Amino acid sequence: MINTETILVTGGAGFIGANFIHFALKNRPNWQIVNLDLLTYAGNLISLATLPVEHRSRHTFVHGDIRNTDLLARLFQQHAFAGVIHFAAESHVDRSIRGPQVFVDTNVGGTCTLLQASLDAWQERGRPADFRFHHVSTDEVYGSLGLTGAFTEQSPYDPSSPYSASKAASDHFVRAYGRTYDLPFVITNCSNNFGPYQFPEKLIPLMICNILAEKPLPVYGNGENIRDWLYVLDHCSALLRVFEKGTAGQTYNIGGGTEQSNIDIVRQLCKIMDKKLGRTAGASESLIAFVTDRPGHDFRYAIDAAKIKEELDWQPQYSFAEALRNTVDWYLANMAWVDSVRSGTYRQWLELNYDKR
Ligand code: NAD
Ligand code: TYD
C-alpha cells in the first residue's frame, strides 16, 4: 500500500516548476501534485502536455493566483498538503526594470498570502512537524561579486534589481513566519538555470532562437558579466533533496560551480549551432551585437554549495557542455513549443527591450 502525499506546487507551468513536476512525478510514485499557476506570459500548460500518460492522474492543475486568499483557503481545505513548493513569481530582471510593481505584488504580496494560508492550515491541522514550506529563491538576493569569492548562506543580502529586491523581501517574510509562528520552512537560493521549457526571453534560449533565425545576438555591455550556470534537472534533484531531507528553518545555496561569462556562452552556442545547422564556422558569431548595458547589472554570481553537498549529499550530475548541447537539441526539436509560448505581448516586449538599446 503506497502512502500518498499531496504537495502544493505553485508556478508549475513555468520553466523550473514544469521541469520539477516532470521530475518529481517520475521519481516519487507516491506523490500527488496540485499545481496552482496563473498562466502569465511565462506559464504555459503545453510544458506539461508531455507528461507521460501514466503520471497524469497524479497531477491536478488549478488555474489561479497565489494572491487569491479565498482560493488558497479552499485548496487547503480540500487537501491536507504535506508541503508547499513555491516557484510562482515574476522572474525576469529586465522586465522588473521596466515595471517593478507586479514584482512587488506577486513575489512579495503573493508569497505573504501563500505563507498566511499555509500557516492557517498548518495550525488547524495541529502543527505537524513534518510539514514544509519550501521557498524557491535565487542567488541574486546576495547582490554582485567581484572577480573572486562565492556566496555562502551567510552572505549579506544586497539585491540590485527590483526582481532581486522582491525575492530578498520574500525570503525575509518566509524566515519571519518561521521565527514568529514556527512555520517549518526551507529556503533554497539557486544560481542561473538553463534547459528545456525556459521562456525565450532569458539569455540561453533567446540566443538559441536568434541564432536559428539569423537575428542579432544582443550582448549587454562588454559581455564580461559572469553567471554560475546550473542545468535545470540538477536544480530539480537539489530541490527534492532539500524538500525531503533539509532541516526546517535552514537555507541551502544551490549551484553548479560552472562560471561562464555571457560572451563565452554566446560563442559556445554559436559554435554548437553552426555545426548542427551545417553553417560555415564563424557564421553565427558575426550576429553578435554589443548593446547598451542593463542598469544596475550585477557583475558576477558564484555559489559556494558546500552546505547542500556535505549535509545532504547532493551533487550535480550534468557537465555544462553536455547540458548546453542537450538544451540546444531540445530547442531545435521543439520550435513548435517556442512558437506557441511567444504571444503577441512577447513580441511587444522584444521591441520594447531591444529595439532602442
Ligand atoms: P518562470 O517565469 O518561467 O515561471 C513563473 C511561473 O509562475 C509561471 O508559470 C507563471 O504563470 C507563474 N505565476 C506568476 N505569477 C503568478 C501568480 N500571481 N499566481 C500563480 N502563478 C503565478 O520562472 P522560473 O524561471 O521557472 O522560476 C521559478 C522560481 O525559481 C522563481 O521563484 C524564481 O525566482 C526562482 N529562480 C529562478 C532561477 C532561474 O534561473 N530561472 C534561478 C533561481 C531561482
Ligand atoms: P538572464 O537570463 O536575464 O538572467 P539573470 O539576469 O537573472 O542573471 O541574463 C543572464 C545574463 O545574460 C545577464 O548577465 C544579462 C545577460 N543578457 C544579455 O547579455 N543579453 C540578453 O539579451 C539577455 C536576456 C541577458
N- to C-terminal distance:
60 Å
Task: Name the beta content range.
Answer: 15-25%
Number of helices: 13
Helix share, percent: 40-55%
Structural class: alpha/beta
| CATH-derived topology of the domain at 5-197 and 230-257 and 297-318 | Rossmann fold
Describe the strand arrangement of the main beta sheet, using strand numbers: 3-2-1-4-5-6-11
Largest sheet, in brief, is: 7 strands, parallel
Q: What do the pLDDT scores average to?
A: 96
How many strands in all?
13
Question: How do the helices and strands follow one another from N- to C-terminus?
Answer: EHEHEHEHHEHEEHEEEHEEHEHHHH
Shape: globular
Radius of gyration: 20 Å
Mind sketching the topology for me?
Layout: E1 5-10, H1 15-27, E2 31-37, H2 53-56, E3 59-63, H3 69-78, E4 83-86, H4 93-98, H5 101-124, E5 132-138, H6 162-181, E6 185-190, E7 193-194, H7 203-213, E8 217-220, E9 226-228, E10 230-231, H8 232-245, E11 250-254, E12 259-261, H9 262-277, E13 288-291, H10 306-312, H11 320-333, H12 335-341, H13 344-354
Parallel strand pairs: 1-2, 1-4, 2-3, 4-5, 5-6, 6-11, 7-10, 8-13
Antiparallel strand pairs: 9-12
Helix pairs in contact: 1-8, 3-5, 5-6, 7-9, 7-11
The protein binds nicotinamide-adenine-dinucleotide and thymidine-5'-diphosphate.
